[in-house]
Design brief:
429 residues, alpha/beta, Spore Coat Polysaccharide Biosynthesis Protein SpsA, Chain A, UDP N-Acetylglucosamine Acyltransferase, domain 1, 2 domains, 9-stranded mixed β-sheet, 8-stranded mixed β-sheet, 30% strand, globular
Length: 429
């Protein structure tokens, strides 16, 4: 069988995304905008397409409308290649009337739908990570090692493994132990890599390293069905540890850039890193393009602007503004005299017409975008936000909480104006 027919990719659409709140107030994690014009879900889908895997199932549950629209508008395959991105939402059945209880539970409930596809292997992916991987390599190593389950693993220094699932492997990368987010230093020390494996890694490190699970799994089809023939709800916490000693578990080493976009701070830093001259994640590699919705927007227009390390999406109108280390999303609008530093602006879903502008002026609401003479630093401005003239917004020295009568939220040290938020003229935070 070809790679396309042998592998079925299953992308987890994410839970409530509480750690990314308020960016997930009205959308699920995979639908959060990224890098000016993309969504997080575009990353795993593009990795699949670039790996010649074109049969993709997306499991969704919370705040799914935005994600569904994006998928339906973005991914269309011809009738002859057999490819698809199929959305499977949580549903009530005769057996269950509640929500997915975890990653494993979500896959289990959809086995009845995926069994109709011809496949030998199931590739399980997260919908909220930033990385590039050729999945053909993990599939090939999975087959060569005759594994039942393969887990993509990335080496991390011991000082940076907090919140990650760790594994102990033999020198042939067979997994012998698995610990989900361990905190005991003795347990962590017991999971560090052997000298032989350290020598195999491309990048040397002065600190001891562990192998962390990336949440990317390859299952033999029959093994997946057997592993889910129970009430376990989570792959990392329950399913994978339960298979130790019963099935052959193999690690697949990955040494590229990988970022789990799990918190507001991680999202903020990953976006701003893209504005660097040599960002850790390369959107410009023609061999591995990142796909997204074709919007047919006009080119961005910059009038008398001072720009330094900025990513600018399509259809922006920026006038007499000073932008330093920023990411500007599609249809971003910044008026005269405003200065932004370390800011992620997600842009807008639409342009305001003159009639809409007059209507908003009559209601005392600022125009969509950022008004005149504003100073904004260390912030995320979500989509369709309206920031009036002469506003000063900064996360500096601010404790996490709500400000400006709840219109502004500081989370993880980052100031956030939520989607559709309205900041009156002259507001200072």
């Amino acid at each position: 069988m070809t790679m396309q027919k042998r592998v079925l990719a299953v992308i987890m659409g994410g839970g409530r995304g509480t750690r990314l709140h308020p960016l997930t107030m009205e959308r699920c994690k995979p639908a959060v905008p990224l890098a000016g014009k993309y969504r997080l879900v575009d990353i795993p889908i593009s990795n699949c397409i670039n790996s010649e895997i074109n049969r993709i199932v997306l499991l969704t549950q919370f705040n799914t409308a935005s994600l569904h629209r994006h998928i339906q508008d973005s991914y269309h395959f011809d009738a002859f290649g057999g490819g698809f991105v199929d959305i499977l939402s949580a549903e009530q059945t005769e057996k269950s009337a509640d929500w997915y209880q975890g990653t494993a539970d979500a896959v289990r409930r959809n086995l009845i739908h995926t069994r109709n596809y011809d496949h030998d292997l199931v590739l399980i992916l997260s919908g909220d990570q930033l990385y590039k991987m050729d999945f053909r390599q993990i599939v090939e190593s999975h087959l060569a090692s005759r594994a039942d389950v393969s887990i993509a693993a990335i080496p991390f220094p011991v000082s940076k493994i907090e919140g990650l699932g760790l594994m102990k492997v033999d020198d042939d990368l067979a997994i012998t132990q698995f610990a989900e987010k361990p905190k005991d230093p003795a347990v962590i020390q017991s999971l560090t890599l052997s000298e032989k494996l350290e020598a195999k890694l491309q990048e040397p490190c002065a600190e001891k390293r562990c192998l962390a699970s990336m949440g990317i799994y390859v299952f033999n089809r029959a093994v997946l069905a057997e592993a889910l023939d129970n009430t376990m709800t989570d792959f990392g916490k329950e399913v994978i540890p339960s298979l130790l000693g019963r099935k052959r578990l193999q690690a697949h080493l990955f040494e590229g850039y990988w970022e789990d976009i799990g918190t507001v701070k991680a999202f903020f830093e990953a976006n701003l890193a893209l504005a660097q001259p040599l960002p850790p994640f390369n959107f410009f590699d023609p061999a591995t393009p990142i796909y997204t919705r074709a919007r047919y927007l006009p080119a961005s227009k910059l009038n008398r602007c001072e720009i330094d390390h900025v990513v600018i999406g399509d259809g922006c109108i920026l006038t007499n503004a000073k932008l330093t280390h920023c990411v500007m999303g599609i249809r971003s609008y910044v008026k005269d005299g405003s200065a932004l530093k370390d800011v992620v602006v997600m842009g807008s879903d639409y342009y305001e017409t003159e009639a809409q502008q007059r209507e908003n002026e009559a209601k005392g609401r600022p125009h969509i975008g950022i008004g005149r003479n504003c100073r904004i630093e260390g912030a995320i401005i979500d989509k369709n936000a309206r920031i009036g003239d002469n506003c000063v917004l900064s996360a500096a020295d601010k404790l996490d909480g709500r400000y400006a009568n709840g219109a502004v939220i500081v989370r993880d040290g980052v100031l956030v104006v939520p989607k559709g938020g309205i900041i009156p003229p002259g507001t200072v935070v």
